[in-house]
Amino acid sequence: MDLATLIGLVGAAVLVGASVIMGTSPEVFMNPTGLLLVVGGSLFVVLAKFSITQFKFAFKAAARAFKFQLPSIQESIDELVELSKVARREGMIALESREVNSPFLKKGLQMLADGFSADMIKEMMEKERLLTLERNEAGGQVFSALGEVSPAMGMIGTLVGLVQMLSNMGDPSLIGPAMAVALLTTMYGAMIATMFANPIAEKLWVRMNQEAKMQELWIDAVLAIKGDKNPRVLEQMLTIYLPPEHRSAESSEERNAASERT
User: Are 181 and 28 in contact (CB under 8 A)?
Assistant: First the structure.
């Protein structure tokens, strides 16, 4: 689970909730009419911008922002070097039974075991990468749209409340509820955008770029294994994906030997 996303969203909600409780009664901030207008209205407007499939997938993608964690680049490089050694020692068919966490990499290993050509492997994996990128991008767009729409729906609720208040100036008992709708809908819209939609959208964009980069690494590695590259050459080739400050001339074998000595 991605604790940063969970801690950030829950922490912000707790702070806002604490400020509400310490200031006055929480019931003052609960207005079903305002919530219905802002939450329901925002979701329907966003749905109008996208297809039902894209809308449903966006919430599945949001769940991945909490529970899906990519391996580190160094961990993936070490795993790929080991797979390269297995392919050289036991043949490509041995890769079929190897357990890997990524379905994308698993598909590439399956194609190696099935004897696909390098051009076919590259074409199919690139197409899969682009389709995954497109799906993740659609999820980010849905939540970005929700972040834009919800404050606007809050302002619409404010205008509705003001109109109701001004039209009932002769009855003081109706001014309070109308003013509550006018003020609370603005708050609801700002909270949905700032504390929910925009953070998840940004997380999806970040995760999308991370996954695309990792898939490029896996494609390069699978093609190098297909070309029977030496595992040491493969490792040096893949270190380009590491940040410059994390690159080292030390190989995985040397790191393992050093860890065994300690």
Answer: no
**Hunting for tokens 């208040």 — which residue is that?**
165
Q: Quick one: 231 exposed, middle or buried, by C-beta within 10 A (0-12, 13-18, 19+)?
A: buried
Tokens of 225: 């294994």
Q: Using alpha carbons only, how large is the chain's radius of gyration in Å?
A: 26
Query: CB count, 10 Å around CB of 234?
Result: 21
pLDDT (tens digit, 9 = 90+) per residue, 136-177?
A: 888 889 999 999 999 999 999 888 878 877 777 777 776 777
Percent of the chain with pLDDT over 90: 30
Of the candidates 222, 233, 215, which has an alpha carbon nearest to the alpha carbon of residue 114? 222
Is the pTM of the predicted complex or chain greater than 0.85? no
Helix (H, G, I), strand (E, B) or coil at 25: coil
**Residue 149 and residue 258 in contact, taking contact as beta carbons nearer than 8 Å:** no
